[in-house]
Amino acid sequence: MGTFTVEKNLLQDGKPVQLISGAIHYFRLVPQYWEHSLNNLKALGANCVETYLPWNIHQPDPERFCFTGMADVERFIALAQRKGLFVILRPSPYICAEWEFGGLPAWLLRDPSMRVRSSQPAFLQAVERYYAELLPRLAPWQYDRGGPVVMMQLENEYGSFGNDKAYLRTLAAMMRRYGVSVPLFTSDGAWQEALQAGSLCEDNVLATANFGSRSAESLDNLAAFQPERPLMCLEFWNGWFNRYGDAIIRRDADDVGQEIRTLLTRASINIYMFQGGTNFGFMNGCSVRGDKDLPQVTSYDYDALLSEWGEPGAKFFAVQQVIRQHSPEAEQFEPVGLPHRAYGAIALSRKVSLFATLPTLSLPVKSPWPLTMEEVGQNYGYILYRCHKAGPGKVEKCRVVDAGDRVQFYCNGEHLATQYHEQIGEQIPFALREADNVLDLLIENMGRVNYGPRLLAPTQRKGLRGGLVIDLHLETDWDIFPLPLDNIDDVDFSAGWQPQQPAFYEYCFAIDSPADTFLDTRSLGKGVAFINGFNLGRYWYRGPLGYLYIPAPLLKQGENRLIIFETEGVEVGALALLNKPVYIEVTESTT
Fold first, then answer.
1. What DSSP character marks residue 183?
2. What's the rounded mean pLDDT across residues 416-444?
3. DSSP states of 361-394 as a string?
4. 585 is catalytic
5. Among 31, 193, 300, 430, which residue's CB has the most CB atoms within a 10 Å radius?
6. SS (H, E, C) 540-565
7. Domains of the chain by start residue, with CATH
8. pLDDT for res 588
9. Which residue has the higher pLDDT, 561 or 292?
10. Cα(301)–Cα(537) distance, rounded to whole angstroms?
11. Model confidence over 144-179: pLDDT tens digits?
12. Are 384 and 441 in contact (CB under 8 A)?
């Protein structure tokens, strides 16, 4: 047992200690690779690892908690302890992290009055139920009980969202009530307004700052705000995230090394990210430009010290050298990558249209008017709205009223329009050719906003929020098909296929030994991919990525099965598995 306290310095067992930490998100890596990443963090010369804990992963539904597989945070903590690393945990209700809805569970939005990140009783009750399950699992791993966890986060960048101090104090009391005894901290932007709004210094909660440049100025600001407390950059941004249709953001390794050199002379540091990993499934976050939601890509490579696939790059060696010069006693050694392999072309085995296999994937919810994704109990993925219109008749015009995020409109299986952001609401001409016309709206939830006041916007409720106007009236009597695609094995490939429709494509291939590989998506349009039932994430022809990363533990020796859900009517007879990532050139923002 020991003590870890915050006074004028960070004190381990009464002696000053400087934390040199790296961010690794266990939920963005397959568990088989956690040890590889932690080993490389040790090789860097770091003495600590930091991670967020996403609420939406650990409580995917109100009545269900998950702490297994990629959500087994205790296993991750135990591995870090075996490597001799301290651990900083960030179990705040909101994490940002460029993660879907900032880690807030989408099921909160089933309550139309819900106000997240506030002292609203309904929100706090939901948080307490989560903490009652989560925090007793974390408490035994704290430093004062023989574990490696030295600090926990109270809230994340709250000063860029609100200043509800009653909310912060309630969270602090809740964390203490459920067994948190190590120091608490907040993290905010390094300017006075953000620090003042988001901190709780008067309650002995350490304020830390997040920034990626002008380190000396940022530390001066933090020191002026909190003069009698130790300085820590809780997130030193050494890279950045990427959005669809934007060029990839890179940062010079020497620049990163110089900033970290400046930081280490005055402060503890957490390098964000050490390894970014992957937004598997539908977990990519969404940023904002003006009033537009801009979803982020599947890769969370972040131009970090280790790549998405665990390869040390120039930044790793630049930072390792800085740490060696600053702390000659730090243990350092050569980092290692992971083997990757090209498996070549894999041929199309079977295909089926979404409309044909719809009965095997979803049971319809019947409603006089459209219901949002949240209202039918769905959190992520796609949702299909179907109604019938009598005919035949003259050319009609219709328009979609208020939908999120991307709408594809079909009449009798024929694609008539795709609308996204500013196009939603534009007129769509179509003809009623049959006695009974089937109108389908396939809507994709492309990821909820993860930062800022837009967390509260009505647009974070997905699907058809308004309706479909034909002539001047709203259509009624809908069949609503939730499509979270968490039952991919239920696709019926014998049901039939039609060109130019959303469809599932199956590719079967055999390998002798699994290694990391990269699915080349450049010939595809838009959709998601599944390997042996695991959702690898989204792809989109807009770039900048032309690949999806497939870690070796998701493959099997012998027969493997890749399923593509392609929404753009693109049929590809063969796909390629490459030994390196590939990209789609984006010369300027197209989003």
1. P
2. 93
3. H-PPEEESS---TTTTT--SSEEEEEEEEE---S
4. no
5. 300
6. ECCCCECEEEECHHHCCCEEEEEEEE
7. 4-326 (3.20.20.80), 344-352+487-578 (2.60.120.260), 369-476 (2.60.120.260)
8. 60
9. 561
10. 14
11. 999 999 999 999 999 999 999 999 999 999 999 999
12. yes
Of the pLDDT bands very low, low, confident and very high (cuts 50, 70, 90), residue 590 is: very low
Average pLDDT over residues 576-589: 89
Diameter over CA atoms, the chain: 83
Do the beta carbons of residue 512 and residue 360 sit within 8 Å? Answer: no
Cβ atoms of residues 156 and 187 within 8 Å: yes
> Which candidate in 50, 98, 157, 311 is catalytic?
157
Q: What's residue 290's pLDDT?
A: 82
Residue 589 has pLDDT above 70, yes or no: no
Which two three-digit tokens encode residue 394? 């003259």
Sheet containing strand 463-470, strands side by side: 428-431, 395-404, 463-470, 473-474
Name beta bridge partners: 414. Answer: 411
Indicate which residue of 50, 98, 155, 235 is catalytic.
235
Rounded to an integer, what distance in angstroms lies between the CA atom of residue 268 and that of residue 185?
13
Task: List the structure tokens of 64.
Answer: 């269900």
What does the DSSP 8-state code read for residue 312? B
Do 232 and 20 contact (CB within 8 A), yes or no?
A: no
Which of 300, 286, 294 is closest to 591 using CA atoms?
294
Residue whose tokens read 């901190």: 199
